[in-house]
From TrEMBL:
The keyword Nucleotide-binding does not apply. Required for the insertion and/or proper folding and/or complex formation of integral membrane proteins into the membrane. Involved in integration of membrane proteins that insert both dependently and independently of the Sec translocase complex, as well as at least some lipoproteins. Aids folding of multispanning membrane proteins. Interacts with the Sec translocase complex via SecD. Specifically interacts with transmembrane segments of nascent integral membrane proteins during membrane integration. Pfam families: 60KD_IMP, YidC_periplas. Keywords: Cell membrane, Chaperone, Membrane, Protein transport, Transmembrane, Transmembrane helix, Transport. It is a multi-pass membrane protein. Belongs to the OXA1/ALB3/YidC family. Type 1 subfamily. Gene3D superfamilies: 2.70.98.90. The keyword Transmembrane helix applies. This is Membrane protein insertase YidC.
Length: 617
């Protein structure tokens, strides 16, 4: 197996890995009681219908019949309280003492509208308390508050909602809004209600009809899901994609998030974890106004609430790796950084470097160029080693051509003679492959990272209005494998890949083998063009710049490499090996030589057997 064949195999494996990354996959099988892949939307719609029915005004008799001992708080007036800081604007309602609307002030939707993360129409919640006379939804009671509209500055601000059930009996919901950031502390308190409560935990139900904030609905649906962290700190998620998903867990969870492509609505338990959690995502292909319907149905331990430890957090904000680490344990895993093998590269290298460059470069196109140059400088020793390997092959090309004429079209014989030549001059056929293989994790890491970087969202560069999505330079009716647009950055990436392949082929000798790897080097870029046409413009621009810089880097290295000196070194190695002074081949080179010799011997035996069979006839 020669160098180009090895590179070809690596590229084919890369395509297979890319295919696995791009095509939605079913979730791995879990315990039957923990995860299933089909849902019955009637359960969710039934709860939503009950919430809508409960929102209708009640008279005193109906309130007494429905709410029993809580009837005194079942009627009242609805008033909104708006509290904001520099990052977020939250609207609370006295009806339910709940968060009614959240606006992220620093972000806009793809069509430049205010980014309303949740509102009263799309988001429904239920907080069901078990009592001796049945279950009561605390989000249907009316609460009193002294809070007023305002802006938080300096110190965090509390909004306290209190519902009087009877003398000495009350319910409090307390929200703490920070001076900056997206985390709302939430405390639930029950006072004097121990004799009223029944056994069982408090049910928290949340249904969110997820709105579309990015331009590509299909991509939004593939990205939208529910993430969660179990009590033993295993990060899990519902399978991403465009089909219904459901998970029913027997183990508690510490937190869950309703995850859009770049934004999160999350709920975190500060003390005891949430019990008996059920999560669902439902897709209605006919409804383009809703990305997915996300449903979280969890139980809050009532013992915590009775003991004054009913303390939780809401997170309403961007899915930004730099912000999430302080919210809760493993909360930053909401930002997908790739498989476990690649994640450290993104977490400890690319994300920090990207955020460091942000401090000095405001134009994100220029920032990507700077990132490419920085990475290429780090990889310069590997690039130099790869170029030296190709230079050795060029020096040996006349001898390889002579060898081909001598042995004819026998591929096995060609490869065997080639390995002998490599041994004589002390050249390893893998010396040029290792640097190429070393760069593969970097390419795959970026392939994972760029589609999840909120930093690129709505950042413009040249003709691209948003580097976090494709640049639709040309649009047309949908075409299979291409879609309804053509990304110019993807075209430039493909052209630069073909140019790099052409340059590489001019400086790399043709190796024997059944596959013309030089021809294949032109085919792969065209195939990847169709794959990456709908990927973020920032990613394809990075690959384009990387190809250009690589060609320039090799041209620069070429000026410092003297091929006459390389030939002299190879000739000296040949002399030493002939005199028995050289090193014996080892490692992979020796293994390859041994296998080729065995194959040559087997071929000779087969030829002899065939001759004997003919002579008998």
């Amino acid at each position: 197996m020669d160098r180009n064949q090895i590179i070809g195999i690596v590229l084919i494996l890369a395509m297979l890995v890319g295919y696995q990354l791009l095509v939605p996959k079913p979730a791995p099988e879990k315990q039957a009681a923990q995860q299933t892949q089909t849902t019955k939307p009637t359960t969710a719609s039934g709860v939503a219908a009950a919430i809508n029915k409960a929102e209708q005004p009640l008279d005193s008799a109906a309130a007494k019949a429905q709410f029993g001992d809580f009837a005194a708080a079942a009627t009242g007036q609805t008033r909104d309280i708006v509290v904001e800081n520099k990052d977020i604007k939250v609207t609370f309602s006295t009806h339910g003492g709940r968060v009614k609307e959240v606006v992220l002030k620093k972000y806009k939707t793809y069509d430049k509208k205010p980014l309303v993360l949740i509102d009263d129409q799309s988001s429904k919640t239920l907080l069901e308390l078990p009592t001796n006379r049945g279950k009561v939804d605390l989000h249907q009671l009316y609460y009193q508050t002294t809070a007023q509209n305002g802006t938080v500055s300096g110190q965090p601000q509390q909004v306290v909602f209190r519902a009087e059930v009877a003398p000495g009996q009350s319910i409090e919901q307390i929200y703490t809004i920070p001076a900056e950031g997206y985390v709302l502390d939430y405390d639930l308190k029950l006072d004097g209600l121990n004799n009223t409560l029944a056994t069982g935990d408090i049910r928290f139900f949340w249904e969110d009809k997820m709105r579309q904030y990015e331009n590509d609905l299909s991509n939004n649906r593939r990205s939208a899901t529910i993430d969660y962290l179990t009590a033993d700190e295993n990060f899990e998620k519902l399978t991403e994609g465009e089909s219904n998903q459901e998970a029913t867990l027997q183990e508690p969870v510490q937190w869950f998030t309703i995850k859009h492509k770049y934004f999160l609505s999350g709920f975190v338990a500060k003390n005891s974890p949430l019990a008996k959690a059920t999560f669902k995502t439902l897709v209605d292909p006919a409804d383009s106004s809703v990305v997915k319907t996300a449903i979280a149905d969890v139980m809050l331990p009532i013992a915590d609430v009775k003991a004054g430890k009913g303390q939780y957090k809401f997170y309403y904000g961007p899915n930004d790796f730099q912000l999430l680490g302080s919210v809760a344990p493993e909360f930053d895993q909401n930002v997908y950084l790739g498989y476990s093998v690649l994640k450290p590269i993104n977490k400890y290298f690319f994300v920090p470097v990207f955020n460091f460059l942000e401090k000095f470069i405001s134009n994100y196109g220029l920032l990507i160029i700077a990132l490419v140059v920085f990475v290429k400088l780090i990889l310069t020793p590997l690039t130099y080693k790869s170029y030296i390997s190709m230079a050795k092959m060029r020096v040996l090309q006349p001898e390889l051509n002579e060898m081909k004429e001598r042995v004819g079209d026998d591929m096995a014989k060609q490869q065997s003679e080639q390995m002998k030549l490599y041994q004589e001059v002390g050249v390893s056929p893998l010396s040029g492959c290792i640097p190429v293989l070393a760069t593969m994790p970097i390419l795959f890491s970026l392939f994972m990272l760029f589609p999840n970087l909120i930093e690129l969202r709505q950042k413009t560069f040249l003709w691209a209005n948003d580097l976090s999505t494709y640049d639709a330079f040309i649009t047309f009716p949908a075409i299979p494998f291409i879609g309804s647009h053509l990304s110019l950055f993807t075209v430039l990436m493909t052209a630069s890949s073909i140019a790099y392949a052409y340059y590489n082929n001019q400086t790399t000798p043709t190796q024997p083998g059944p596959v013309n790897m030089k021809a294949m080097s032109y085919v792969f870029p065209l195939m990847f063009m169709f794959v990456l046409n709908s990927y973020p413009a920032g990613l394809t621009f990075y690959y384009f710049v990387s190809n250009v810089v690589t060609i320039a880097q090799q041209q620069l290295i070429r000026r410092f490499v003297d091929e006459d000196k390389i030939k002299a070194v190879l000739d000296e190695n040949r002399r030493k090996n002939a005199a028995g002074e050289g090193k014996k081949p080892g490692g992979f080179q020796a293994l390859l030589q041994k296998q080729l010799a065995a194959a040559d011997e087997a071929r000779k035996q087969a030829d002899e057997a065939q001759k004997r069979a003919k002579s008998k006839k």
